[in-house]
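Dear U.,

Please find below the material for section 3 of the report. The protein was modelled together with zinc ion; I have listed the sequence and SMILES used, followed by the predicted complex structure.
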Amino acid sequence: LLWICKQCGFRESVRKYYWRCPKCGAPLDVEYEGSWNPRGKGLARYASSLPVSPTKTLGEGLTPIVKMKINKIKIWFKLEYLNPTGSFKDRGASLSLYFAKKLGYKTAVEDTSGNTGIAVTAYANLYDLKSIIYMPKQAPKGKKNLVKILGGEVIEAPSRAEASKMVLEKIKEPGVFYVAHIWSPLFIEGNKTIAYEAFEQGFKHGVLAVPIGSGGLLLGVYRGYKDLFNWGLVKEIPFILGIQGCSVQPVYTAIYGKPLECGESTLADGIMVSNPPRVKEVVDVIKRYGNIVLVNNDEIIKALKILYKHGLIVEPTSAAVLAGILKALDYGIIDPGDNVLALLTGSGLKTHDILDKFLNSR
Ligand SMILES: [Zn+2]
């Protein structure tokens, strides 16, 4: 197992932890020989194709797929919000916190707008680590409360950017593990298991609709299908439909050369990452295998109402995915005859506080 940096060529056997390249500061990846040998349940089912294999579980992974017809298009919804703490982040947190424990760390710290903080705290508990979560003041109250109830320490920052600065001060102390989900290759590795599962659940080609925050989810499912392709299990990589919000659109802007004015997307708090460190790789994948659309609050609310009516209780960020699919259909980017897999990433049970004012005002 090796740390590798695609930017400067740094390579080192994995004996200690780096949250980014110690030479040049770019995001790191891990290199190892993976193979296809699914056995057992949860993430452990794919131990042969993961860099580390956690010894404990909260029941993460193996999320169901439900198939529905919405506006004449057949969509397979993968219910990632049914993971133990209500989001797909449990997959990466499972690998990352296991790794922290293995290396002897006592405290895990993270900066996040919400879901990751809940996942990190739950898995820190599982491995007897203390967790300190730096969250922006405007993060949903339901998410902050969950971190606290789980036993994590919440430190409020004036903004998302300020939270990142504060965490960088904290990790100067010894024994502090910076989870750094936006940077960490372990989160991308964890997200690969979504692709492996979807393949085993029957999704072998079509359109894969995925929200883009840091891009770790998109890169994870892309690399998962690339593995399946390399192992000869699928004939092609699915068409990847990336979805960002109008308010924060770094990937869209990088692809099309300038930002698009299309309103506000404050409801999609989970994908507001203004400067994702892996933006170049995300752009490359979308240019080669897919496309990207932007959605705003009105479209998100409309999609959220459709999803709730169908019994899919997701957070607004996840509704952005359906909004994006309907928009891509309008634009002719995808076809009504396409098989679409949509990743519903986070649970709506955590976000009633933000839904209140929007649903009641319309
Ligand atoms: Zn480097």
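For the text of the report, you could mention the following: Residues 135 and 156 are 5 Å apart (CA to CA).

Regards,
Y.
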